[in-house]
Amino acid sequence: MRQVSTLSSDLVAAGFHALSETLRVQILDLLRTRELCVCDLCEELAATQSKLSFHLKVLKEAELVRSRQEGRWMYYSLNLPQFVVLEQYLAEYRRFSPIIPTRSCDD
Amino acid sequence: MRQVSTLSSDLVAAGFHALSETLRVQILDLLRTRELCVCDLCEELAATQSKLSFHLKVLKEAELVRSRQEGRWMYYSLNLPQFVVLEQYLAEYRRFSPIIPTRSCDD
DNA sequence: TTGACGTATCAACTTATATTGATGTATTTT
DNA sequence: AAAATACATCAATATAAGTTGATACGTCAA
Q: How far is the C-alpha of B11 from the C-alpha of A89, rounded, in Å?
């Protein structure tokens, strides 16, 4: 885990950062059922368009969502593989963390 | 997932927030091998004591670490069950996110 | 019981994130 | 071509998070 490239660990950090905000989590939750455009999200979440654009950009940079333009609409959807990346990152902690007896500071 | 209590989703958000910071991730990484006190972490990470106390508090509030006092030392260790909670939260996205065909805005 | 040590906390400051309202840019409709 | 729509971006502001140095608190050793 320590030898993982900076690039991918930056992406992991970006992912966790993206997941630490209420509105962004609400966006992701809505995207679980279907692809949505920004105006759909504005309605559902009663948030302004520019606010949503901001948070969607954060989610996109973390690669938790994808976007696809269709005419004047921009459709956002979950990018599930990146969720798996984060999940596996956490799983590493379980795998390689032995329960080791206390080592005293005053040895 | 939407019906999860506010309390636990706050904890999940706190967990992801805690994981989005370099120094905190370094702390967690060190704790993977063994329990450590603050002075150990100061040395290993070349960071000031008050800085580490700050970040350890963030980690503790997110329940990603536990602490245990022994004399004048405070030993920190990973709280693996909370890692599992976060992992499972992410896993939910995989489980219940069907690939549904695009619904157009102009239907 | 005094002094040193390990840690937590605090106040002041710096830096990073988020919000708001306005403007810009495609795209479509008329 | 002009007006309307959907969205992104920007500058200004507000809020939150992190850093720093100082101080306070409990514990231990002398």
A: 19
- For A45-104, how does the pLDDT look when each residue is reduced to its tens digit (9 = 90+)? 999 999 999 999 999 999 999 999 999 999 999 999 999 999 999 999 988 665 544 444
Nearest CA-CA partner of B59 in A21, A16, A5: A16
Indicate which of B87, B95, B99, B106 best probes the interface with A, i.e. most A CBs within 10 Å of its own CB: B87
Q: Tell me the C-alpha distance between A87 and B66, whole Å.
A: 22
Task: Number of A to B CB contacts under 8 A, please give it.
Answer: 101
| Greatest alpha-carbon span in chain A | 69
- Strand C nucleotides where any atom sits below 7 Å of a protein CB: 5-10, 17-22, 26-29
Residues in chain B closer than 8 A to A105 (CB atoms): 37, 39-40, 73
Q: Is the pLDDT of residue B51 over 50?
A: yes
The answer to whether the beta carbons of residues B21 and A13 sit under 8 Å apart is: yes
Q: Tell me how far apart the alpha carbons of residues A8 and A21 are, in angstroms, rounded to a whole number.
A: 21
